[in-house]
Amino acid sequence: xxxxxxxxxxxxxxxxxxxxxxxxxxxxxxxxxxxxxxxxxxxxxxxxxxxxxxxxxxxxxxxxxxxxxxxxxxxxxxxxxxxxxxxxxxxxxxxxxxxxxxxxxxxxxxxxxxxxxxxxxxxxxxxxxxxxxxxxxxxxxxxxxxxxxxxxxxxxxxxxxxxxxxxxxxxxxxxxxxxxxxxxxxxxxxxxxxxxxxxxxxxxxxxxxxxxxxxxxxxxxxxxxxxxxxxxxxxxxxxxxxxxxxxxxxxxxxxxxxxxxxxxxxxxxxxxxxxxxxxxxxxxxxxxxxxxxxxxxxxxxxxxxxxxxxxxxxxxxxxxxxxxxxxxxxxxxxxxxxxxxxxxxxxxxxxxxxxxxxxxxxxxxxxxxxxxxxxxxxxxxxxxxxxxxxxxxxxxxxxxxxxxxxxxxxxxxxxxxxxxxxxxxxxxxxxxxxxxxxxxxxx
Length: 443
What we know:
The chain is of the alpha/beta class. The chain is built from 15 helices and 17 strands. It has 2 domains: about 50-290, 3-Layer(aba) Sandwich (Aspartate Aminotransferase, domain 2); about 295-420, Alpha-Beta Complex (Aspartate Aminotransferase, domain 1). Residues about 435-443 have low confidence and may be disordered. Helix 2 packs across helix 11 (about 280-315) and helix 11 (about 280-315) crosses helix 14 (about 390-400). The chain has helices at about 1-35, 45-55, 75-90, 105-115, 140-145, 160-170, 190-200, 210-215, 225, 255-275, 280-315, 345-355, 380-385, 390-400, 410-420; strands at about 35, 65, 70, 95-100, 120-125, 145-150, 155, 160, 175-180, 205, 230-235, 240-250, 320, 335, 355, 360, 375.
């Protein structure tokens, strides 16, 4: 009797903890279902991708490559990984694809491990000019012990100063010319950088984390055809799949030099920076690649059109929007200057109103924790069906929050009402599956 009582008490204690976690998950779903999600590095999963994440693949291990495993029981997953690789190659029109990296940063670390040794030199953008932290001294490049030298930057064009960058590459003769950006408004001058890099025996590495889906949709630039030796990316931003990363290259592997290059890349991923690699995510990536082959061009095109129209509207309403000379943006991103050190305060203020985005450094900032800008993304708003006309409404919400200083409570109510019409996911397979909306996991 006493033992049973103790077991009941313990069960009730843990039951409350579990219910607490479930409640928070439901609240999170409700938050994003009633807000304007505009963080440029996020997106939402299709029903089929989501289904893969709850399969038995979730708990399994598959170290190695298809047909060459340390563990038994991988024959079925081998077919899934092979299909994911096939679809990735088709999506990016390339000879080599590795779908194993568990994140975009993991893919970058694998490439660095494969292609550069500690103490060797790489050229990269400075973090204040929009570089991703994985190519900075506090991130993957720093962990690898790389000597980083920053490209010069053109603040007006929000891009690498190509003449200065070419001169820099010729002067320092780096092992790698890195192109990784967290603020990615315009295509990079890859052809010129690649030519300079190859002339000094360097590889050009293109981190497409943010713009991977735009590239796959053939609406941004084509790094592999422009000279990049290898491209990494995140599979959960403008390519709306599961959290994860990937590596692609167009080196055909038909020479000893090419085969050595691709072998190094593969070895960098495993055993370099992965053991098992989230098999359920690989299955979901395969679904995302198939969906993007079908819908990616239309999705990428609408995402960019929405960003350009929103940027123009924000500019017309009095906001300082970067990149005006070149049309503000050619990607899903918009960069606003809010005021010296005011980015964090502004991002919190609009979050209280129902607009979820992030503070961001702008050219001239020195403290990443107290930046002066906001970075906006249109990829998720596009995914839930918004088009150019809705961007005018979104711009007005920003004005009401940050210029007119309206009550956050009133704005949050209005944004929640506005979002009621945008709960269905677009640009994904639907036939034969229950319609998806943000509340699927809430009910």
